[in-house]
Amino acid sequence: MAWLTLIVDTDAKYAEALSDALLEHGALSVDLLDADADTPDEQAIFGEPGEPPPGVWQHNRVSALFDADADVAGILSTAAQIVGLTGLPEHRIETLADNDWVRLTQSQFEPIPISNRLWIVPTWHTAADPDAINIVLDPGLAFGTGSHPTTRLCLRWLDSHLQGGERVLDYGCGSGILAIAAIKLGAAHAVGVDVDAQAVTASRDNATANDVHEVAFYLPNQAPGGQYDLVVANILTNPLRLLAPLLAGATRTGGQIVLSGILEAQAQDVMAIYQQWFDLNTPVFEDGWSCLSGRKR
Questions:
Q1: Predicted confidence (pLDDT) per residue in 259-271, tens digit
Q2: From residue 179, how far is each of 166, 184, 214, 262, 297 by CA, in Å?
Q3: Which positions make up the binding site for S-adenosyl-L-methionine?
Q4: Which residues belong to the annotated binding site?
């Protein structure tokens, strides 16, 4: 059996109401995504410490799933009228073939070599090199599987620069991959912080799966204070701008910082902010993304 997928871009005023109307008139499921994802206009929707939550995305992509015989255009027309949209919104309808979705999803996630000695290995695979440092990690709700360039950039930095014995803060820890990798690479202790409770739960589960115990994960208002030898933050440019004083304050004098989640075109802007506290190295780029690093004065 095949399905139909309806994709509509709309602004924040109509996104949730349109999603509800589509569900009421036959959609099997509806997802809301940031229509500006992976662009300079990408918007974080989680609030940061000391800042009010930004709320919802301003430009939304509504993706709705229907049975193959559904009158998708008719349902969209009805839903649009209900929420007060004039005319039929610009949209597209795609056919989604029937598949074994579990196997199809798993086939997209092979073991990822980060370096000669560091690999990310999904649980359904056998490690290619049992003697390597293998981080067992499955794709899930939290960001960070090793497949995104920003995660790989941070992992390579950790692999190349950790000396052993460091205290590490991973701010915006997602799946916990960077904190877990830091411990496996010799750090003495790591703390992961994320504004998403699901990410904190996923990070704790991943640490257990990797038999890593020298790490703890928290929501921001529960995290311990203090300063760290290394602070790493793989999030997005706008949160990194807002968090600069907090991340600088969490780094000890002489300690290091690693920042990613930054588009290549935004690297200089972020560097200009963090140069208030850090002597920064030359940025490293991969696939249009940046990794910044430096030492606190």
A1: 999 999 999 999 9
A2: 11, 9, 10, 19, 24
A3: 151, 172, 194, 234
A4: 151, 172, 194, 234
